[in-house]
Amino acid sequence: MTTDEPPRYTGDAGPYPGGDPYADYRTPGPAGFPFTHLPDLADRRLGAGVIAANDEFFAERENLLTPGPAQFDPEAFGHKGKIMDGWETRRRRGTDGDHPFPADEDHDWALIRLGAPGVVHGIIVDTAHFRGNYPRSVSVEGTCVEGSPSPAGLLADEVTWTPLVPRTTIGGHAANGFPVDTGRRFTHLRLNQHPDGGIARLRAHGEVVPDPGWLAALGTFDVVALENGGRVEDASDRFYSSPTHTIQPGRSRKMDDGWETRRRRGTGNDWVRYRLTERSVIRAVEIDTGFLKGNSAGWAALSGRDGESGDWVELLPRTRLQPDTVHRFLPDGAPPVTHVRIDIFPDGGIARLRLHGSLTADGMRRLVARHDELSG
After folding, report:
1. What is the per-residue pLDDT across 276-310, written as a single tens digit (0 to 9) for each?
2. Which residues is 193 bridged to in the sheet?
3. Which of 17, 65, 297, 334 sits at a 20 to 30 Å CA gap from 88?
4. How far apart, in whole angstroms, are the C-alpha atoms of residue 290 and residue 349?
5. How far apart are CA 352 and CA 287, in angstroms?
6. How far is CA 156 from CA 53, 113, 146, 303, in A?
7. At a CB cut-off of 8 Å and minimum separation 6, what does 365 contact?
8. Can you tell me the distance from the alpha carbon of 13 to that of 187, in angstroms, rounded to the nearest whole number?
9. 3-state DSSP: the chain helix, strand, coil percent, rounded to 5?
10. In a 10 Å sphere around its CB, with 0-12 CB exposed, 13-18 middle and 19+ buried, how is residue 275 labelled?
């Protein structure tokens, strides 16, 4: 195995020994997999959903996309058996007593609508707490169907599904990670477990590829929003929470739903660099410090540049921020930019950054060309 390949886990985990249920959980550790710095396209906050499954006898399919790690209560039982925080199907059986095991092709499936269509670079099939009742193997496929297709429409014969993860043996009570390299845009995934069992969480990390027709109809929109194709390229500090939170939909719901840095001592300041949907002119700015009360940034400044090697120009001078407040600014004569950087002084956090603007003509042309190329 090369250093670029993620670890592979197979086989059962031991029975729950008591105490911390994650003590023997198999995972690459805090660094995660090489693709987890990318946003989760199957994030429910982006509008993702599990729209169908062939079976969910023991545990509901919707649990697959629940934010955060799966929970485990050893005392929780219901009228169908152990209550699990994941998607769990009943045990499959063969055709008769002489053939008690399911056929090789027998499997269970779930259909997932991505919250933001895009290119998938990595998938995690998390079997946390499924120690002896996880699937023996899994496979994942993707398709691109615009609009809001029904489950029957997605399962129609004319819909083409592209393999993202081939049928692969996995481990119980483990984070099973798979790099994906298809270079295609997808709107939906099909998760297959062979032949049956339980999966706690599904994550699909990648790059958002928005619909340029929709953005053109909007005219003015948030050009840094994750759902519109904006992304975080780099940040000075990710100690308490991810800077990607700042471009998630909606308002922050609690303190760790924003970006917060460790406390600085001495000189310097913290910052985040964003890449916009495409080249844009910014007309209005919102810096939200919601739920950050004793730890919000003291001041903030915005700068932008046009292209990878362009010079940084000031969009908003260093400005005092208030805790737990939405701040609104109207930049005067901002030039077209492809990247924006927010500097906070000296440290602290912000909950959301909104950059309302519109694409330039050349920006829209590039966005359309990329969308068409990746959509096949």
Report:
1. 999 999 999 999 999 999 999 999 999 999 999 99
2. 108, 138
3. 17
4. 10
5. 6
6. 15, 16, 14, 49
7. none
8. 34
9. 10, 40, 50
10. middle
